[in-house]
Amino acid sequence: MKLLYLVPLSIVFTALIFFTGCGDNTAQTIAPVETEQLSEQGQEEVPPTERPASKPERPASKPDHLASRADSSKDLESMVILVNKHNSLPSDYVPEDLVEVDISFPFEGASDRKLMREDAAVHLEELFKQAAREGLKLYGTSGYRSYQTQEVIFARNVKKYGSKSAANRVSAYAGQSEHQTGLAMDVTSPKVDFRLVQCFGDLPEGKWLVENAADYGFIIRYPRDKENITGYTYEPWHLRYVGVRAAGEIAQKGKTLEQYHESDVWG
Ligand SMILES: [Zn+2]
């Protein structure tokens, strides 16, 4: 059953500049992709289950599909699909297996922002459960985002910044947002008032994600000091599902998804 919620575009998309709220109230950081103002409404935390920790196993064997790695960057069904300023998704692309992720969000009710592709959703739930077991409170804020929603966001930024090129410095063109893949989720913490700010990466939660996300198939998609490769500044909150094997390689070697696709050598 498809669980795609067709909610009206009533969410307020306004804030581009966030105060860090991390001990320096004068500092500002610009969120280049994220343009959604988060709800201030908290949500009851879902207590972790009693199930024992069960990290997905990382395969040790060499993959047998090296020849297909380049092709996978453009395959809409692939978990390692590459979406960036040079690789766009079709305007009519909507993942067919979107489901609501069973994690905590700082807002109530049904929303596209709670959706991810099923495989990503299952793994994110396990990641969040493990974080909770270790005493860390993570919240999701923004998962799937339609092409049409991104169009609205980008048009608003063109108006705000005066030109498309100026708007593209802080937000993605429609079709170029990873959120349209259903494989990305922005995560945050009550410690930063549920905002998307760079100092999230300095919190125990942000550091824990760097160390553990790959075990569940996720990467920090826009690492610090990789803007020249990814096209976006550091976003410690933006998790991208790529599958356990690819995430392991990317994390272990300190790569980006762009470099993963350029590489044809394993080991
Ligand atoms: Zn994001």
Secondary structure class reads: alpha+beta
Major β-sheet annotation: 4 strands, antiparallel
Give a list of the ligands: zinc ion
Name of the CATH class: Alpha Beta
Mean of all residue-level pLDDT scores: 80
Q: Helical residue percent? A: 25-40%
What is Rg?
18 Å
CATH architecture, by name, is 2-Layer Sandwich
Beta-strand content estimate: 5-15%
The strand line-up of the biggest sheet is 5-6-8-7
Gap between N and C termini: 40 Å
H/I helix tally: 8
Which series of helices and strands comes N to C? Answer: EEHEEHEHHEHEHEHH
**Number of separate structural domains:** 1
CATH fold-level assignment: Muramoyl-pentapeptide Carboxypeptidase, domain 2
Unreliable sequence segments: 1-21, 24-53, 57-67
Shape: globular
Based on DSSP secondary structure assignment, what is the total number of beta strands? 8
